[in-house]
Amino acid sequence: MLPPVFKKNKQLIITVLLMTLLVGGGHLPDTIESLIFYLVVFGIALIAYARNKFLNILLSCSTLFFLIAWYNAFRDERFNLFFSVSGLLCLIYGIHSTIHFIIKSKEVSKSEIFALINCYLIAGFFWALLYTMVESLMPGSFEIKIMQKRIMDNFIYFSFTTMTTLGYGDILPRSVLAQRLSVAQAIFGQFYFAMVVAYLLNKLFQHHGGAKE
């Protein structure tokens, strides 16, 4: 059980963790960076803990996949794949719990605003791991003009620039799968904010309409 102060502010804590991961990453040795990344996404899953047996099995599997990758110190592309799967399972857990919280929320609150931000940030990391998986399974799926030490750092950058439809053009999807995933993410990014605004306005109108009645 989380202490009351953490339980009350868990969406804010998740936002801080995700933003720290986004802005502060990419400066340490690869294995340390990968360990920190996994600990953060695993921690997010624990903070967003849900009493769901299937999700808890997924979380256990994610730990197993990460340990396999860590034991082999990411020596080849196969272990990048294991690492990507471990992170994806944690993020699936986190986004399920976050959406569940938003749906159950009866009014627009500070926690709900942070939860909506978290969904967006989690989606960015989720696609980054998908791109890492694609490149691990099919090398050459992306043309990367400036290669970072850890391949996932390239895809975190590419994921968020794609989702915001910024697209600097220094990383290009070449395979059909990579192109389709990029298009799907760009569509998600464009519609997400429109859906969030519509959702919040509808919630506000319902709340104020119910108060007047």
Map the helices and strands:
Layout (H helix, E strand, L loop, with lengths): L3 H5 L1 H15 L5 H18 L5 H19 L5 H28 L5 H28 L4 E3 L6 H13 L7 E3 L2 H37 L1
Task: Work out the radius of gyration.
Answer: 18 Å
Q: Any guess at the CATH architecture?
A: Orthogonal Bundle
Poorly predicted sequence stretches spanning 5 or more consecutive residues: none
Number of strands: 2
CATH class equals Mainly Alpha
Order of helices and strands: HHHHHHEHEH
Number of helical regions: 8
The neighbouring-strand order within the major sheet is: 1-2
Question: Which range does the strand content fall in?
Answer: under 5%
Give structural notes.
It is a single chain. The protein is mainly α and 213 residues long. It is built from 8 helices and 2 strands. The protein has helices at residues 4-8, 10-24, 30-47, 53-71, 77-104, 110-137, 151-163, 176-212; strands spanning 142-144, 171-173. The longest helix has 37 residues, at 176-212. The chain is globular.
Characteristic terms for this protein:
213 residues, mainly alpha, two-stranded antiparallel ribbon, 2 strands, 3% strand
